[in-house]
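chain below, 591 aa
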Amino acid sequence: MREQAERARERAVLPIRSHAARGLIAFGVFVAIAIVAVTGYEIVSQRESDIGQARRELAGLNLALAEHTGRVLAAADRVIADVAAGLRRREGDTTDLARLLRNHAVGLPAVAALLYADGEGRVLAHSSERDPGGLAVADRDYFLVQRERPAGGLHVSEPYTGRIAPRPQIALSRAVIDRSGRFRGIVAAGLETAYLEKFFGDVAGREGGDIYLFRRDGRLLVQFPANGASRAVAVGRALPGRLAAAPQEVFRLGPAGRGRLVSYRALDGHPLAVVIALDEDVLLGPWRRAAWRLGATAVAGIVVVWLLVAQILRRMGSEARQAARLAQSEEQFRVMVERASDALILHDMQGRIVMVNQLACATLGYTCQELTGRHVGIVAPAIDIARPYALWQEVTVDHPVTVESEHRRKDGSTFPVEVRLGAFDMGGRRLILALARDISERKAYQARLEQQANYDLLTGLPNRMLFLDLDGFKRINDSLGHAAGDALLVECGRRIADVLREADTVARFGGDEFVVLLPEVDDPAHGAQVAAKIREAFMAPFVLVGRPLAVVPSIGIAHFPADGEDADDLLSHADAAMYRDKAARQTQGGG
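prediction:
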């Protein structure tokens, strides 16, 4: 035994050392490396793709913002340029200037106020209905800049709160120069920052993104959302140098992992630039989630591969151990076959007998050699080819099937058997194990019991029969369910049995029909009396699922031998009488 155990252990470790095992391990390593490489490439490629897509989206969005903002500024600039030119032609005559400014303001929804201030900064006319008396802009940067460099063209001021319209604004201003070239004042349009903020908010597409309007010198004028000023500082510092190099660009700003993707575009004809900045953390959020999913899938794939490799290695080891146990198990099986208490027949899936025990040979009258190799149909005449093959496919060791059949002896005589079928694999073949037990005595005893329970001992026929049908049973069964219908049948059987004698028999004939056998009846009226008792027993309501229900039986009576001399005639007569009873009660109910 010790030597056998040692050989088994050697066979168990042999596959691990074999070329096949080493090749399998190498394959697992290769697959794991391939999964990691493909997953890493996919993650990096997806990141670059997402960033590239974001760059294109930001550039496209910035173009739309710049075009709209440029149109708003250009409209206001044309007005103040026209007014400044008109004042030069009229040599400072401000007659009807206020009305002219009001008319221009109507077509400029973004402009809070238009004004003209003289060379001292006094407001002489504006677009409001208020009297301009006392208003001055001499301290405003848009006035001071124009006075210092009157030929500088358009100037865009820093944000301020208006005096004519007290709301946050930025001013577009142009100097008024007389024919001699002297500075005579300014024309300014106060552009409401709220107008641009609302527009920026309407087109903002991503959370974590900011939209700015900068001057070329890096001064922040308008921002959305309002809390983005602190994040705008770094953008404002970087913008002047980049604008000097290119009028538009998308670049990355800030440290890795916490940076921002920034898109800027200079406005044609204006000293301004529109900027969109998007946090990388928000931009790469979907990518990070996808990367985690891909990583988890890759890890799961590697685990599955190595589980399969380990399973195959274990199987290779177990095959060697199984080979060592096979001969021993076959010998043990032969011993078990001979010691079985029932006749045992072992055959394959084609029905060829592989092995029988001595008890089977003695019962059937054959020798083991005569049965081995023959088709099982030689001893089981009821077996054809198709039916048992389908049955054999269903059975297993853990789920045997028990059937009743007949076996045929060598002399041609047959006898009933109860066969317990199981299936198992041996030596690569699926085999069927049949344990057969002679049940001749059991069948004879059952036949005697059935005869005594259902037939008169003297004549062999029922001498009186009542046939019962339950009116309305189908309606109750359909409305309350099969469970309620079953409960009703049980209670009906109990009530019928309660009114019968010990010698009488009640049986359920099928569905909602019952048959009552009354032996040893001298008076023909006895059947009608029993029927009346049954009807009286049914008068009390049946309580099902908490509801009282009335059930009325239809009863037909047949007498032996007046109504028939065999069971079929008696059943037919009782059935016809029952339907006459049913029809009569329905007619009475209808009247």
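The chain is about 50% helix and 25% strand. The mean pLDDT is 81.
thats it, cya
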